[in-house]
Please model this.
Amino acid sequence: MEASPKELPVQSRYKLLTGLVVPRPIAWVSSLLADGVANLAPFSYFSIVGHAPMAISISVTGRKPDGTPKDTGQNLMPVDQGGRGEFVVNLVSEHQAEAMARTARPMPTSASEFELAGLDMAPARLVNAPRVAGALAALECKTLSVIAVGSSRLIVAEVVHLAVNDTVIDARHRIDFSKLAAIGRMAGSQYTRTTDRFELADEGYFPAAGMAR
Ligand SMILES: Cc1cc2nc3c(=O)[nH]c(=O)nc-3n(C[C@H](O)[C@H](O)[C@H](O)COP(=O)(O)O)c2cc1C
Model:
């Protein structure tokens, strides 16, 4: 097919982008509401922005079915715009897939997805938001900027602290993918494992050579 997005219904645009840009990693974002309720929701519009400084982005799109803004979008806004400006990206391992999906359910702002999914919280070191206690890796983040793209909000944040379980990392900071067992999102209700991998011979590109400090 050849198509102009402007001529496509919004549902088709969603289906095409989420079906073509695959697999997407999942940021399981925990944050605190202004009144202290702990919030947790998955976001697959999630990427690395850079490593100097360490920065990531997530995009909050649409609203809750009742028309109110998603809690995560509100909580991650800078303090002067009514948010907390800090949060944790928990990485999702296979054994947490079902709990993660449960936390995507639209909920009243006053209710906590931690309770809904039966998940324990653990304190973060540098941000005022809880970690998912069982997460094998967590990135503590502070919002740097929020970019409005139509009805979406792209949140760019600096990673100010990392927590990686010792069972999934070695002394040279290499991650054991089999033990992390991260999952990715395809389209709709389909997900992928990261256990089926292959290697390519090094064709002369050595990332460390071009790395900014
Ligand atoms: C795997 C997965 C990935 C998702 N990715 C996104 C995303 O990138 N952006 C978004 O706005 N919603 C995404 N959602 C939907 C949100 O998780 C959902 O709207 C959630 O209820 C938001 O919760 P909140 O109001 O507590 O922030 C995703 C859902 C699932 C299951």
Summary: The chain has five helices and twelve strands. Residues 26, 39, 41-45, 59-62, 64, 70-72, 101, 104, 106, 185 surround flavin mononucleotide (CB under 6 Å).
